[in-house]
């Protein structure tokens, strides 16, 4: 068989063959070098190979080159290079020393794609893990910001969420680089986000986006002061099965942090996982809320109230302070349902909740135990006087009729009061005494307050 000239074989290889002098000068590279490093062979012959190495990998590369020159066969070494276009190439090297020629013979295998896939898998995994480990949506947004910051410049980063029920947009997470030039004014930002969410397509605006190519670019530029004209704005929709639930927004006013088509693709890829994580966390928060709050009035429910009462009792015990409990039941509420219908009854319960909240301080707890039963927890102070004042205020407030969509309706409460430590030191016992006192109020004609009798109490 006729022998084939070796250069023909070398020319066909996807891997690049390199011959490097002991001082790192490149003496020969095969044609594949250009595909991997971006430089044609004639552009690098005579240059130093080390000058192409990513600065962070230079020291380790130099020590590996020394090992090869010490006679070790190198089969596994991986490092990074800065391509001619500024992008990063990941390379795995096989190299040996040619002692008689005093040259390093090395073969470069391009592993950039593999590295990219690995880093994307790590990002996807990190996002999905964050969805499980973070305690709330805010913490999840922070994690997502950090993770995306490892892929792209993300010093100006925002999460926009769209609420389809109210057709409204909010920015629950928004971080701006300290001292950064102002980002687009709120109306422009809103309009751009709304565009991304409603169209379901990514929008990348750069200083090179011609105004006539995208009217949104023109709009953005018109609204910005001249010195901030070279603005990069990248918005990616957060797509779920039920449509776009929001958008991720990155922006930059500097050329150092500019966004390209590749960044756009990267963010698009990650955004599906981000959307799933946010959706999962939203669902979790909704379920948690449903388990703790009354769906009609949005007040804490019995379970959450008992938890709060338990904590408040522990605090009162520790601080040797007092607390009081008001148990409130509406008088003849059933008649409202019977005469005006259940929906009006619901509306009245909502208005009652609102009025109770208006009667107490922000630090007090108002809860709905169920039906037409409410409780108010007042902490500290002179419990007896405090409770009496709050109860009087509530009775006075209920002296005004409620407006139910044009129908004016009067309803009064019966109120029972129990005080810690006078009437018990345990939550169910205290609640029981307040309930009994309320029952006595009701039996005496309603629309009044009764404090539990001192003999009901136990030494806490
Ligand atoms: N509209 C509405 N009604 C409810 C809800 N939960 C319970 N109810 C009704 O509230 C009423 C409460 O009954 P009671 O407290 O025993 O009756 P009342 O008419 O207030 O009588 P007194 O408490 O003796 O003054 C019942 O008719 C329940 O059906 C609710 O979520 N919405």
Automatic annotation (TrEMBL):
EC annotation? 2.7.7.65
Against PROSITE patterns, the record matches this protein to: GGDEF (PS50887), PAS (PS50112)
Which sequence ranges are marked TM in the entry?
none
Q: What is this protein called?
A: Diguanylate cyclase domain-containing protein
NCBIfam families to which the protein is assigned, alphabetical: GGDEF, sensory_box
Work out whether the entry's keyword set contains Cytoplasm: no
Question: Which of the seven top EC classes does this enzyme belong to?
Answer: transferase
GO MF terms here are: diguanylate cyclase activity
Domain spans labelled PAS:
9-72
Among Gene3D superfamilies, the record links this protein to: 3.30.450.40, 3.30.70.270, PAS domain
The record places domain GGDEF at 321-454
Q: What keywords does the record list, in alphabetical order? A: Nucleotidyltransferase, Transferase
Going by the entry's taxonomy, the superkingdom of the source organism is recorded as: Bacteria
Q: Which CDD domains match?
A: GGDEF (cd01949), PAS (cd00130)
